[in-house]
Amino acid sequence: MDYIVLTDFDGTVSTTDVGNRMFARFADDGWEAIVQSWKDGRIGSRDCLIEECALARVTPEQVRRFALTRQIDPHFMPFVQFCRDRHVSVIILSDGLDFYIDILLEKFGLEDLPRFANHLEFRGDRLVPEFPYFEKGCRQCGNCKGYHVREYRRQGKTTIYIGDGFSDRCGVRDADYVFAKEDLRRYCREHGIEHRPFDDFKDVLKEVQQIVSGDSRSSKAL
Questions:
Q1: Is residue 214 very low, low, confident or very high in pLDDT (cuts 50, 70, 90)?
Q2: Count of domains in the chain?
């Protein structure tokens, strides 16, 4: 099979939700209520991000310095190396912002990994988000991960999806294999979506090694 790995970034590749922490650091009071409105389904993630950005005042250099304090899962790089050795592409799918994602990927020597994310522009100390993939997806997410999963499946790829939260819900509906933790794990259980629970990329690596080698004993859970 022609496998491809599609992974969330915030809280999955990175050890914390970088975007969330960024707004906690640089946005005015009220950003948490906006996020809760998104989680409650009253607004989509695109509108959530627009409103959060409107509350923030921060320069590119401040964001850069902040992003460089963040870390990625220590097992992610060995996972990427395994995939490269097996000619399995690893793609970052994020409903966050490309600016801090690119900084972190470069920090860890992973800047050549393809990624799809919302775009961030700066006007002085104001954040201006742009959504290059919005029209192609569900029109609720800024960057609908389900759209990308379906596109790769149309290309004949067997999709392995890895995520942890609310923005991953569209992605797991069409993926061939799902790895889920935290909020996404609960969502999969509640909706009967077959998935493999994980805590970090050490767990994912063990399972993916079995998947790509054709070992059907790889564990599954609901």
A1: confident
A2: 1
